[in-house]
Amino acid sequence: MTRVTVLAGGVGGARFIRGLLQQLASVDAGSEVTVIVNTGDDMWLDGLRICPDLDTVMYTLGGGISEEQGWGRPDESRRTSSEIAAYGRGWSWFTLGDLDLATHIVRTDLLRNGATLSAATEFLCRRWQPGARLLPMSDQFVETHVRLAEDADEHRASELIHFEEWWVRYRAGKAVTEFVQVGLADAVAAPGVIEAILTADLVILPPSNPVVSVGTILAIPGIRDALRATTARVVGIAPIIAGSAVRGMADACLTTIGVETSALAVGLHYGSRQGDGVLDAWLVDETDAAAVPALEAAGIRAVAVPLWMTDVPATARIAAEALRISAELTAAPDLPVAEFGYSGRASTP
Ligand code: FO1
């Protein structure tokens, strides 16, 4: 029985996990998957607690996602949000569909009655049955805000605005100088999060946004240390293929933190567990095979495989590669460095 823990953001992470679950169902029926989900995109809107990444993972794995959007529900209507806009309230550029609103209403009802975000998430998942355990990264609210580098509508340069306003209203098109995790100082990992990393056989960093999704989770106290301490293998999957973000505007986020938009740069950004990083292995797309030697020289086992998640079977094949690499590293953690070149993890001198 394999215990797999995944640190996920929204659309890319959710789609990967769907393929992972299909792969595990065919090779290891007794396996258990825990998803530690980014809550940095969360916000209060119209009096409701909105949790974009928790809902995207829950809907995607529960069969309730709008496939063409990658978020929200299919066959949606916007009657309620139009009425809210008629009052001049809400975010007219952020769609809260009528069906989706029910999730926010039920979650907010639970929170207002004293439930933690973890408990509220567990309650919602009873309906959706995602086939994995969903844990928010923290039960405290830690919201990602961006500091504008330029004026934007009613906002002035150097002002902090919520990540979702930057992401959705401005399509990450306004220059920003930094990401700020508001509430981080008072946040701890949610119950079960650290344990899910320490007791896993395999921890996966899926192709979610490495800055505002995975990066946000890694900033929660104790999570990075748990990744460096776990006996599990930590395998990441590049969210950048041939120099461009697979989805979303991850390139805008990487530029903001001074990381090049490449599979190599993101792998080195996460770093090797032999150094001060979190990775044992890093999957890059075949078009980025040239990155393998530099990654291996940095102590990160690297393989080049097709990484386009074109459909669930293709995604299951990517998950199979992550499982294979993990098993290989577990079986032969420090392959001797071959006489001519690298044949495994660089053995410590
Ligand atoms: N993304 C958009 O591009 N436009 C929207 O109007 C929008 C609304 C929305 C409502 C609920 C929800 O859970 C997600 C929503 N998203 C929307 C997606 C969201 O911005 C992303 O899922 C993540 O926050 C970034 O990956």
Protein traits:
disordered C terminus, 3 domains, three-stranded antiparallel sheet, single chain, alpha/beta, Rossmann fold, binds ligand FO1, 349 residues, 14 strands, Helicase, Ruva Protein, domain 3, 13 helices, seven-stranded parallel sheet
- Structural class comes to alpha/beta
Largest sheet: 7 strands, parallel
The largest sheet has its strands arranged as 5-2-1-9-10-13-14
In whole angstroms, the N-to-C terminal distance is 35 Å
- Ligand set: ligand FO1
Overview of the structural elements:
This protein has 349 residues and is of the alpha/beta class. The chain has 3 domains: 3-37 and 187-330, Rossmann fold; 63-131, CofD-like domain (Helicase, Ruva Protein, domain 3, Orthogonal Bundle), CATH 1.10.8; 145-179, no CATH class. Helix content is 37%, strand content 17%. It has 13 helices and 14 strands. It has helices spanning 11-27, 52-62, 79-86, 98-112, 117-128, 163-169, 193-198, 214-218, 223-229, 250-256, 263-270, 292-297, 312-331; strands spanning 3-8, 32-37, 43-45, 48-50, 133-136, 143-148, 160-162, 176-182, 202-205, 233-237, 240-241, 244-245, 281-284, 301-304. The strands form 4 sheets. A 7-stranded parallel β-sheet has the order 5-2-1-9-10-13-14, sandwiched between helices. It has a 3-stranded antiparallel β-sheet with strand order 7-6-8. A hairpin with a 2-residue loop joins strand 3 and strand 4 (48-50). Helix 2 runs parallel beside helix 5 (117-128). The protein is globular. Mean pLDDT is 94; it is low at 336-349. It binds ligand FO1. Residues 9-11, 41, 50, 52, 55-56, 71-72, 94-96, 100, 164, 167-168, 248 line the site of ligand FO1.
